[in-house]
Amino acid sequence: MAARKIAADTPELRAQWGGWTFTDENREKADWHIKKYPEGRQKSAVMPLLDLAQRQVGAETQTQGWLPLPVIEYVADYLDMPIIRVLEVATFYTMYNLEPVGKFHVQVCGTTPCMLRGSDDLITACKKRGMKAGHVSDDGLWSFTEVECMGNCATAPMVQINDDNYEDLTAERLDAVLDALAEGKTPKTGTQEPGRHTSEPAGGPTSLKEMVEANHDYRGEW
Fold first, then answer.
1. Residues of the chain with pLDDT > 90: what percent?
2. C-alpha pair distances (Å), 173 with each of 62, 123, 150, 208
3. Angle at Cα 142 formed by Cα 56 and Cα 177, nearest 5°?
4. Residue 1 pLDDT class (50, 70, 90 cuts)
5. What is the rounded CA–CA span in Å between residue 63 and residue 119?
């Protein structure tokens, strides 16, 4: 699992992030999220605001984004919440990065279905590129985390890289995805199995075949 410890609160960290605030655009988005909830319930917006903050930090650092402690404190102040309550959320959910990450955060699922389908080979492919847990690669491109199930068992093994999933992977297919990202390209997301569209059986559907090309109404046949 991803480490849930926060980056050390150092004078250098304070110097870099102590005056951090939302951009005008993100402040407008934050207020929009808050308005979804009844008066006095603004704390309910803590998760989307942390996500906004992480994405803004990512844009500012050209990485996938993370949450320095002063940024977490800013969100707490924005929502009039005790800092510890915001920390509890940030440290619980692995969608929030608590230490610096690379431009691409490669999260490899190592749970049983993915492991049985070859996730160990994917981890080896990542390590060959210098990726290791808790570190950013020397070129600043990669961070690596082995995670638990991300819900793509039918198309295992899979990885999540930033906001995108890549499924039906082999070491060679993962290398092709990573090469494309490193070159500034946008590789195909989802399944990497030729001829497969989503999570239908390999070789095509075996039932409800009329649904492949159109929204076929079966009700008269049942």
1. 83
2. 25, 13, 19, 30
3. 105
4. very low
5. 25
Burial class (CB in 10 A: 0-12, 13-18, 19+), 32: exposed
Please state whether beta strands 164-167 and 142-147 pair in parallel, antiparallel, or not at all (unpaired). Answer: unpaired
Can you give the length of the chain in residues?
222
Residue 40, pLDDT > 50, answer yes
Q: How many CB atoms lie within 10 A of CB 200?
A: 15
Residue listed under structure tokens 């059986």 = 201
Residue type, 187: P
User: Two tokens at 202?
Assistant: 């390999």
- Bridge-based pairing state of the strands 164-167 and 190-191: parallel
Give the position of tokens 């690379």: 102
Q: Fill in the DSSP letter of residue 186.
A: -
Spatial distance between the Cα atoms of 148 and 114, rounded to a whole number of angstroms: 10
